Amino acid sequence: LSATPIPRTLQMSLIGIRSLSQLETPPRNRYSVQTYVAEKNQGLIVEAIEKELARHGQVYYLYNNIQQIYNVARTLRHLLPEARIGIVHGQMDREDIEDAMMRFTNHEVDVMVCTTIVENGIDIPNANTIIIDNAQDFGLAQMYQIKGRVGRSDREAYAYLLVPPRKQLSEVAAKRLQAVREFATMGSGYKIAMRDLTIRGAGDLLGPHQSGFIDTVGIDMYIEMLEEAIQKKTHPEQTEKKPVVEKHANVSVSGYIPKNFSANDYDKLDLYHQIENIKTKQELDAYADGIVDQYGKLPKAVQTLFLKKKLDLLLNEPYVQSYREVNGQPQITFSTLFSSQVDGVKLFEIFSNISKDIRIRYTNNTIIATLPKTKDVLDMSIQVMELAWEARKK
Fold first, then answer.
1. Distance (Å) of CA 226 to CA 39, 232, 279
2. Which among 232, 229, 210, 187 has a CA at the least distance from the CA of 9?
3. Deepest of 19, 49, 254, 296, by most Cβ within 10 A of its Cβ?
4. Looking at domain 259-391, what is its CATH homologous superfamily?
5. What is the pTM of this model?
């Protein structure tokens, strides 16, 4: 993982396309950058700068607006008449930028008023305080990168993330600032990257911009193809073994996690992941009970998500051959072995108790049950599959 956490790259690492390694041991005699989020006021700015200058250090003052940057420098000169203040930004000539940074490196400048140009890997160990004006406008990865300009020596460093006073921040901006403040210890890059992935998402995963025509394949087939390709690459010796392909019920009923179910997007992603990995009905029921204990009564869409998973599990039972919709009506085909061992009279009684509109026919040594159109199609399909097993001959 690079110094700048990029959600798309991290997501590719998590699903196995790219490898992932972490450096968790910080350099010797390094301290975490003390990070503060505060409303902008001149008293705080002056105090932070004077505190750094008192220990003969240097300060970055990041103001990312070239049109106003000279006014900001003029204000700082008025507030701190004894401080030597310089300016650097991307519209200056190359020689002027180099000269300004050399003067800062040689400690001929105490406070460097700058734009984000300083994020590009400049190493000045004596600069250990950074003030970021209008921090709510920066991305999480960019703030993390900029904050890395200080704390590059054995001195304790400080980062002040200033936001406009009495201004309501957007939800995303507040999440970014909270993440930078929360993950301020050494080795927090991976946690920052995970939070960035949660806030921004992994990109247009199934859209044409990044994945070509994958949207016509579908998420289930995409994941299956991806896992197969990764398996071939990482374990070529096992590619000759034919993998067991799980069957999925293709039903025209939507099951999903609504936006208001949880405030944390990472919890939603984890819920999808946990449901997808469940292998038995007992595990699914136990997990559903745990979710109810945690969140209370589940919304209809989430209940449908669990029902669809239960239908998939039943579809993979050996006595069920296939499940599909024909003209909007679910059609369940039972296996040849099960069809030869079932008690037809008992099966008819069981299905009649569920619904008088269920039709049964025997074709090509298999029993096919056609269900009526109903709003509770998932419940009825699950009942038919579960209770059919009871009709087998003892």
1. 47, 10, 20
2. 210
3. 49
4. Transcription-repair-coupling factor, D7 domain (3.90.1150.50)
5. 0.54
| Cα radius of gyration rounded to whole Å, the chain | 31
| Mean pLDDT across the chain | 83
> Cβ atoms within 10 A of the Cβ of 257, count?
19
Provide mean pLDDT across the span 116-134.
Answer: 89
Domain 25-186 CATH assignment equals 1.10.3470.10:
no
- Report the sign of the C-alpha dihedral through residues 68, 69, 70, 74, in that order: positive
Domain boundaries, the chain: 25-186, 208-238, 259-391
